[in-house]
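Trying the structure run again after the queue cleared.
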Amino acid sequence: MANDSGYRGQAETDVENRIDEPGQYKVLMHNDNYTTMDFVVDVLRRIFHMPVDRAAAVMMQVHTKGVATCGIYTREIAETRIARVRAAAQQAKFPLKCTMEKV
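Done. Tokens:
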């Protein structure tokens, strides 16, 4: 907002120019006793665009530690990836669980 002289104060400009970065969320995949390792690798490759060696490493972390991070995304992208994992798991009749948490 300009004052009578047309001058914009530095504080006003700083507030108007400040853009908040979107929140970041970790997408987590959880281990279960039914979903096959091959299916998990396939999901990591197709939905999270991981190369085979990275997908296999993340799958092993899920298997051995119970949970692994698949990626860090904005909220909307994280929600979309989780929905795609759930749809693929449901279609394949696996109980694969994927969640997200704020970074």
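Residues 3 and 9 are 9 Å apart (CA to CA). Worth checking whether this holds up in the mutant runs.
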